[in-house]
Amino acid sequence: MSEENNTADQSSEHDVLLSAQQQKTDSSSIIENSIDLESDLINNLPVNISVEVGRTKFKIEELMRLTQGSVVELDRLAGEPLDLRVNDVLIAQGEVVLVNDKYGIRLTQVVPKTERLKQMDK
């Protein structure tokens, strides 16, 4: 009888271990699936990308005097790199290129991730 109890105890321990391993496997697959869903969600978020040639400041009075043909002086010199911004955060700099009769930008420098994160905190 004691051998039967011992065998039954070992069998129930084995069942408990299998059950725990199965729960662990189920949990990790749920976590993996939620991570996949999150990265799919993140990868499909729209962002605004802009290329900035330069900046300037005006008083409202000066802005109101602008007409067709007015020249607006910017803070950059000719030949300086353009800024590539994503949601107003500087991501890279580059130069203008022509691609199939459309303007593009060839990246010449990418801002390090740590610097981009600092800009987002501002």
Key structural traits:
alpha+beta, extended, 4-stranded antiparallel β-sheet, 122 residues, 2 domains
- Return the average pLDDT rounded to an integer: 80
Order of helices and strands: HEHEEEH
Strand element count: 4
Distance between the termini: 74 Å
CATH superfamily of the largest domain: SpoA-like
Helical proportion, percent range = 40-55%
What best-fitting shape do the alpha-carbon axes yield?
Answer: extended
Which range does the strand content fall in?
15-25%
Task: Determine the number of helices (DSSP H or I, runs of at least 4 residues).
Answer: 3
Characterize the main sheet: 4 strands, antiparallel
Please tell me about this protein's structure.
With 122 residues, this protein is α+β, with helices and mostly antiparallel strands. It contains three helices and four strands. It has helices at residues 2-43, 60-64, 113-121; strands at 49-52, 82-86, 89-99, 102-110. Strands 1-2-3-4 form a four-stranded antiparallel sheet. A hairpin with a 2-residue loop joins strand 3 and strand 4. The longest helix is centred in the first third of the chain and has 42 residues, at 2-43.
